[in-house]
Amino acid sequence: MATSVDFSYLTALNLPSLNLLKTFSVVAKTLNLTHAAALLHITQGAVSRQMTGLETALGYALFLRQARGLTLTPRGAQLLPAVQQALELMGEALKRVESHPDTLRIKCPTCSMRWLLPRVIQLQNDRPDMQIELTASIAHGVDFSTEQFDAAVVFGRAPDSPRRAQHLFDEVLTPVCTPDFLPRHHEGFDVADLADKTLLHPTRDRRDWLLWLREAGVKGLPSAKSQHFDTLDLAINSALQGYGVAIGDLTLIEDDLQAGRVIAPFPLCVASGASYTLLYPENPTPALKVAIDYLNDQARISREKLSALLSSSHRLVNSN
C-alpha cells in the first residue's frame, strides 16, 4: 500500500528561494551591486530586484543604500553567517553525492585496519551493491562538519555523543611474537626471557609496553634493544616477520592469533582504558545503517572471542 508523506512542515517554514539567498550572500560579500552582478552573471538591475524582493518577503531591510555603496543592516549582518553556512553545506553535499554517489566513506585510525579491512571486504563481497572506501589516518578523531566522511572509527576514551556512537571493543594489551621467537619452558614463558630481545614499540613514548610491564610488576624496560614505530600496525607487522616482540591489542590481532601467525605468550593482559568506537551523523542513510549493523555484529563476535580467550588461558587487569 502506498503511503502519503506530509510535507506541510516545509511550507510552514516559509523559506525564501535558494536563488535569492545565494544572491544575498554575494551582495553581502561585495557590498556592491555591480560587482555582485558580474559574479552572478546577471544584470545589476536583476540583482537589485532580487534584493528588493527578498527584503519584501522577509519584511525587513537587509541593506542600507547610501551614496558610497551598501552596508548591512543589523538584521542583515545577523542573517548572513547562517545563510553562508547553509549554502556551503549544501554545496559540499552536492559535490559529495556527485563524485561518489554510491560510496560510503569511513575514516579510521591506521591501527584499526587489521580488524576493519577484512570485515569491510567481506561486507562488500556479501553486498556487491555497496561500495565502501576506507581512509586510514594517524589522527584519532573526526569532524563531520568539515570532513567528508559518512562514518568514522575512532580510538581513545569514550566520546561524548552516545546517540551517534557505537562501542566496538576495548583495547586489551599483551606482548605478541612469532611462535618460535621466545624460549618455551615447562612452566611457560617468563618476563625475564625478554631481557635480550628487541621490543617493538607502537608509540615513541613507549607507554604501552611500560603500562603492561608495570602491571606485571616490572619497573622499566627489561631490554635495551628496541625499535619505535608510528603505528601499532607497523609494530605488529615487524613482529610477524620475527624482528622482535610487539605489544599488541588482542582484538586487532585476532585473525593472526587464530591463524597461528603470532602467539600471546604471557597470560597477563591489560585493559588500557581506551576503546574503539564507531561514530556516525544523525539519521544515517539505509546503506550506512547496513554497515553500522554489520560492524556492530562483527564487534560483538570479536568481544565474545576475547572473553573466551581471557577465561581459558589469559587473565585481564584494568590499568589505573
UniProtKB/TrEMBL annotation:
CDD domains in the record: PBP2_GcdR_TrpI_HvrB_AmpR_like
Annotated source species: Ewingella americana
Alphabetic keyword roster: DNA-binding, Transcription, Transcription regulation
Name of the featured protein: LysR family transcriptional regulator
Record-stated family: Belongs to the LysR transcriptional regulatory family.
GO biological process: DNA-templated transcription
Pfam families found in the cross-reference section: HTH_1, LysR_substrate
Segments forming domain HTH lysR-type: 16-73
Molecular function as annotated in GO: DNA-binding transcription factor activity; sequence-specific DNA binding
